Amino acid sequence: MTKTQLVWRQISARPLGSLLTIASVALGVMLVIAILNLRRDLADHYDRPGRGYSIVCGPHGSPLQLVLNAVYHVDESPGLMPYSAWKELAANESVRLAVPYAVGDSFRGHRVVATTEAVFHPAFPVPDSPTTEGKFQAGRGFVVDAHSLEHAIEDIKAAALGEGSHEHHHHENDVAEAVLGARVARRLRLSLGDQIEPTHGVEGEKAHDHAHLWTVVGILKETDTPIDDVVLINLDSFFRIPEHAGGLIPGTTEVGLSAVLVFPRPGIHKALLLSSLKKRQEFSTAEVSSEIRKFLGIIGGVDGAFLIVALLVVLIGVTSVLVAVWNTMNERRREIAILRALGASRATITGSVVAEAMILVGLGGILGVALAHGGLWLAADAIKDVAKFEPNPLRILPAEYAVILGTILAGALAGLIPAIKAYRTDVAENLAPVS
Amino acid sequence: MALTVDQLVVEFPAGQAGKRRVLDIPAATFEDGSRLCLVGGSGSGKTTFLHVLAGIIRPTSGQVRHGDVDLFALSESARDRFRARHIGYVFQTFNLLQSLTALENIRIVQTLAQVRGKEAAEAAGRMLARLGLSERARALPRSLSVGEQQRVALARALINRPKVVLADEPTANLDSRLRDEALELLMAVTREVGSTLLLVTHDREVMQRFEVQKDLAELGR
Ligand SMILES: Nc1ncnc2c1ncn2[C@@H]1O[C@H](COP(=O)(O)OP(=O)(O)OP(=O)(O)O)[C@@H](O)[C@H]1O
Ligand SMILES: [Mg+2]
Fold first, then answer.
1. Is it the case that residue A141 has pLDDT exceeding 90?
2. In this structure, are residues A407 and A314 in contact, taking their beta carbons and an 8 Å threshold?
3. Which residues on A lie below 8 Å from B112 (Cβ)?
């Protein structure tokens, strides 16, 4: 019979009351832990993949949408920007690397991005590697042949002016090659040499086939970022698809691109570029990190409010422990007096009351953590559907230990109040026989 | 190593700023292993006296010595520890801890006296067996009969082999059969342990079992 067992007996002597107080603490802790985890998952989902990107140029519209579309590959592309702008950006002396994106196709649920070998340049953040070869788990990247690209562009323009037929002047260097993100390759069980056939537009609606085949020439290393879910194809092959509505900026004869990802040279160049690009009329410019910060700031403000509510629920739970333990003090005066008469010190009595509150609150805390992670595990699919990011229910955040510790500490404080009452219990008075 | 009392005065507040002297004992000595039956009218201060001897109430003035230990010169926590180790107390109303089993009621006083380990567990088992309670070890007090409760209370008071056993009307709630049984046990076990026994009673039958009976009012005079 240890003192801990004695405390445990006090708790189990009132099973319903103890369970209710444990549950009320658990509820609050569960909310806090769930919110902390979701906000972390959200930050992971948007913050980490955005690292290394710098500037995105694209069509007019919200800069956030531009970033979400070009970096996270979510949402429809908001439109087109002039192809010529890419050429200009690539030639700008402040620019280290300019990566054009043309989107609009998909392959079995995965976005197809038409681009150039610039996407495999070591300066491109994903997959992170100091060499181009290091970015591949198998095969190689594609290289856009300048002549093929020029021809394809000219053909589109000519067709738009009604000059040419849909017939293409096939060039001897024309190739159609694809590089797969790691998850695409794994999910679709594709390997080097396989032929794939992307479709135009969103899948599901009656998409007409291009009747073109792309050969898989490379598979990227896994990065745990959105690029893993993307199929990259060479830009000229994209423009050679005659049906491509995406080829021209509507109402013009200008060939369009979905976005250009710009990586400036180090130093002052980023600031210089930003200030000059922001003045441009033909396209708009977004700074990736500030858009992500703003985006997470909005969400952070909302979940900060939820977090405060959840912490209040914890506080209410801890208070309910205080009240529950306090309410038992009257009926326990006699037991306390008996224990004192048997030789228990005031410190033992006081400590046992504090320990009781701490155990109740601690059990609530542990239950809350378990419920939060169990809940996240159960809700993972639903959250992914709604919020587009996947919670990680098996990870325990360092903050969770802090929450548990803080809660138990609050429990100790809550226990202190009835403990003072226990401390003051008069022994002789409470030993008197009750008639 | 006798239990001695010197110039003991206990006053309780009474009326407006008034005081009532409940105890006034110039001197008294209880030799080791002695047995005394204390009698006295209701309200004469018998319970108060036992409380003082156990260190539960601090006297207004005077000394209580257990051997060479001056009880009220000790710090409160040292006095609590002393009580846990050396004093067994039997209450009129048993005062078992209701959330603990019979065995646990005994084990808890071992814990408080810092008697631990396998030997302690065995001693508790032997004590229960000695009092015929082995079968009821896991029962909660409310499911015990009155006689069983009283035996658990006795076991609890005696398990640490205390130097002094203070019993405050231990048989008042018992019928004559249970009273005799309890008394016999109390006498037998205190003799085995060699404890000094101070027992308070109103019951003539109980008084007759003691060689020495004293009225509290005459104590030390
Ligand atoms: N805490 C207290 N405050 C004030 N008066 C008290 C207190 N405790 C006891 N008394 C008074 O002191 C007197 C002695 O009480 P005590 O309980 O010692 O008597 P007793 O001899 O045990 O009586 P009984 O035979 O009825 O048990 C009583 O008049 C009682 O009312
Ligand atoms: Mg009395």
1. yes
2. yes
3. 339, 342-344, 348
Taking residue A415's Cβ as centre, other Cβ atoms within 10 Å add up to 28
> Is a pLDDT exceeding 70 seen at residue B72?
yes
Q: What is the mean pLDDT of residues B55-78?
A: 95
C-alpha closest to that of A343 among B70, B114, B10, B116: B114
Burial (CB count within 10 angstroms: exposed 0-12, middle 13-18, buried 19+), residue A145: middle
- Range A179-189 average pLDDT: 94
A117 and A266 share one domain: yes
- Here the tokens at position A168 are 């293409």
Cβ within 8 Å, pair B112-A341: no
User: Residue B162: CB within 6 Å of ligand 1?
Assistant: no
Is there a single domain that holds both residue A133 and residue A260?
A: yes
Predicted local distance difference test score (pLDDT) of residue A168: 56
The phi, psi pair for A377, rounded to 5°, reads: -65, -45
* Residues 6 or more apart in contact with residue A26 via CB below 8 angstroms: A317, A363, A364, A365, A367, A368, A371
Distance from CA of B216 to the nearest CA of A (A): 19
Is there an atom of ligand 1 within 6 Å of B217 CB?
Answer: no
The answer to whether position A54 is within a domain reads no
Is the predicted ipTM greater than 0.90, yes or no?
yes
Q: Does B23 touch chain A (CB under 8 A)?
A: no
What is the distance between the alpha carbons of residues A24 and A361, in angstroms, rounded to a whole number?
9
CA distances in angstroms from B172 to B91, B127, B146, B182, B217, listed in the order given: 10, 23, 12, 11, 21
pLDDT at A125: 93
The answer to whether the CB of A324 falls within 8 A of the CB of A21 is yes
Question: Going by C-beta distance under 8 Å and a sequence separation of 6 or more, which residues neighbour residue A174?
Answer: A145, A148, A236, A237, A240
Read off φ and ψ for residue B26, nearest 5 degrees: -60, -50
Question: Domain range holding B68?
Answer: 3-218
A289 found inside a domain: no
Confidence of residue A206 (pLDDT cuts 50, 70, 90): very low
Quote the tokens at residue B155: 């076991």
pLDDT digits (tens, 9 = 90+) for A76-114: 777 889 999 999 999 999 999 999 999 988 899 899 999
**Mean residue pLDDT across chain A:** 88
- Which residue has the least CA distance to atom 10 on ligand 1? B12
Counting residues of chain B whose pLDDT is more than 70, the rounded percentage is: 99
CA atoms of B123 and B136, how far apart (whole Å):
16
pLDDT given for residue A42 in this prediction: 83
Q: Is B114 left (phi over 0), alpha (psi -120 to 50) or beta?
A: left
Q: Which of A342, A345, A423, A434 to mutate to test the interface with B (most CBs of B within 10 A)?
A: A342
Report how many domains make up chain A: 2
In a domain, A287, yes or no: no
Ligand 1 neighbourhood includes B48 CB (under 6 angstroms): yes
- Residue B24 clears pLDDT 80, i.e. is over it: yes
**Average pLDDT value for chain B:** 92
Q: For residue A51, tell me if it sits in a domain.
A: no
Range A218-225 average pLDDT: 92
Which residues share a beta bridge with A230? A111
The secondary structure element, H or E, covering residue A98 is strand A95-107
Place of tokens 């000094």: B196
* A8 vs A250, higher pLDDT: A8
